[in-house]
User: Fold this.
Amino acid sequence: MDRKEIVAAAGAYWDANRDAIVADIAKLVEIPSVEDLAAAAPGAPYGPGPAAALAAALEIAEGMGMAATNCEGHIGFADLPGETDAQLGIIGHVDVVPAGPGWSFEPFKVTEKDGYLMGRGCLDDKGPSVVALHAVKCLAGLDVPRPYTMRFIFGANEETGMRDVAWYLENYDSPAFLFTPDADFPVCYGEKGGYDGLITSAPIADPVILDISGGVVSNAVPGEAWAVVRGNADVLPAAERIAVADAGDGTVRIDAKGQNAHAAWPERGISAILLLANYLLENGLANQQEREFLELVRSLTSDTTGAGVGIATADEYFGPLTVVGGTIRKEGDRLVQTMDSRWPTSITAEEITAALTKLTDDIGATFENTLLMVPFLVKPEDPEIQVLQDAFQFVTGDTEHEPFTIGGGTYAREFKKGASFGVNMPWVENPAWVGGEHGPDEGVSEELLKTSFEIYVLALAELQGLEIQ
Assistant:
């Protein structure tokens, strides 16, 4: 089959199986597969939700005639045998971040509206994973050579640490090459380093801030934050994106409304934690210890390049370092702020730690590095990257967009050789009511999924034609 015939066959498959594809997506979206370590058990190391979603995904693969393996709930895979045992891979994830507030649609249900599928995981990453899995099934029916076994790996812990992949690589060899449908088109050949940290105050005596909470996960710009403080609501001024209400007994509740965004693209968001910290500081709603902590939080969250905390830098592959302060909370008599940084090759993890530790030492707080991933880079001229790029260009006719690097941390970085490959096309504008990954009203267009499907089928067929070591 030539390229036109492969793409035509993919289009015909989609048209014939569209309802089944949407039903498979819905089957996974209906499972709230958020990590719950408190409920972890044998066969469900990340909690019952991820385990149930993993089992459902493997059931879908088995229904396609693939041989599926559940690795004790850590991770799973399904194989389409080739002429040899050498493997090409795809990896997607069935876990999701919490729904969080602000939804207009039911989070854990696929709602179809005006050509869009709405629901947590429709975009990140249940929808794309199902589409890529169907691409493997479509490949099985094409008249193309398959020297390599296709292995589809289903992760269950991508959002909170990728311990699933660590387990997999301790027990199985890496495919020679794989891609993950968990980022943007055309093709991403490199990922910034990932660095998470925890800033914890000293015990605070006689607090003004009685309680505080903001954000849902560390790896997102928080859309909402609130605090209950000692004060008088009647004398506090109005402010943009701030709501003030009497909470009784001489206390006030202050709510800040920002805009969620993934930590890989923090410039798309408005930090509710920054809005809240600014309001508390500007209106004297903090004692000296709390003020020093909030001033550090403001330095962290006010500049997404890290300039506020002395870690701004950039390189030729990845561009600037980014940083977000994803969550804030009160634990006992201490304030706790998380940070997430995506870093290029022009700085080291040790330098980030030193810069933050100096700032926390100055106010009697502590700093802890809680997650560390080094930058990942594949040469953009490598044949696998070129096959993916060519498939994108052939299906879409788009020659404007080139291979790129990202600040996100996908599964690709953990394997012998890999890339992230769709499904987003960030240059395509969605209606205002369609949200992105990690935010409320997450959604994806069916047209984008169909185009992605055709790209994946062509790419898989042509990857099979490479000499892969």
Q: What stands out?
A: The mean pLDDT is 97.
